[in-house]
Amino acid sequence: MRFVKGHGTENDFVILPDPDGALELSPETVARLCDRRAGIGGDGVLRAVRTKAAGDPAVEALAGEAEWFMDYRNADGSVAEMCGNGVRVFARYLVDAGLAAPGGWDLATRAGLRRVTLGASGDVSVDMGPPRHLGGGEASLGGRTYRGRRVSMGNPHLACAIDEPVAGLDLTRAPGFDPAAFPDGVNVEFYRRVGERHLEMRVYERGSGETRSCGTGTVAVAAAAALAGNGGDQAVEAGAGAGDATSEWTVDVPGGRVVVTLDGRTSHLRGPAVLVADGEFRNDWLYGA
Ligand SMILES: N[C@@H](CCC[C@H](N)C(=O)O)C(=O)O
């Protein structure tokens, strides 16, 4: 079986071309592929399937609008609804492989259609849809409680504003959260304002641990910061802070920089998508014990 390895701001993926949906991808196989010592290594897997062969009626219903379905899996084998960096890398892969043309077109994801815009090379832009604000929430880390805002980008996020540099956080362990508030788990972001509409962020991802970037997470923190507006994040907690209707945010993550645009109707994520390697799995390793 062929694979391609790629990353978007160092959020890295094993891409599996499976146009006809022939591949049985168990959670154990995904975890083996993503293992950084015993496998190829990655924060997740992107299976490239024709939408009409997705094997999921809700996704196959999108076949008239999107030729390709991004079947995203976390490194632990769990399924997630969306992956913002993954969409960029997936689109770059399709164009590179001659399976799609440069330009603007829709991809199918479990969270619905996502429109990508890309040239023959360079950055990829994605219409990420409207961030959905779901109120406040809490996470705990290193004996401290952090208040944040719950934001859905198709997948669940808790965006916590902090005052100190994010580099000082210990994210070797998963932040604690209230399972009643997040029954499906949550991606927890910590962000700090470092300038005018400029944030730095680190993330602990559901199903993958700390990653060097999370595209849906960068939009979630920009949306949380924009909602706070000039009144600061505390204003939102106090019920004030209408936020900016249209704004562009620079978000620095350990793996690089992305740009998030919020226009009151939807959100856009722009950033790099890099293909690193092509290869072929050994069947004795892949299908071995
Ligand atoms: N890294 C991704 C998000 C991947 C899914 C996430 N771990 C989840 O379980 O929701 C991104 O770039 O958005």
From TrEMBL:
Catalyzed reaction equations: (2S,6S)-2,6-diaminopimelate = meso-2,6-diaminopimelate
Pfam family, one: DAP_epimerase
E.C. number: 5.1.1.7
Annotated keywords: Amino-acid biosynthesis, Cytoplasm, Isomerase, Lysine biosynthesis
Binding positions for substrate per the UniProt entry: N11, N74, G84, N85, N155, N187, E205, R206, G215, T216
Assembly: Homodimer.
Protein name in UniProt: Diaminopimelate epimerase
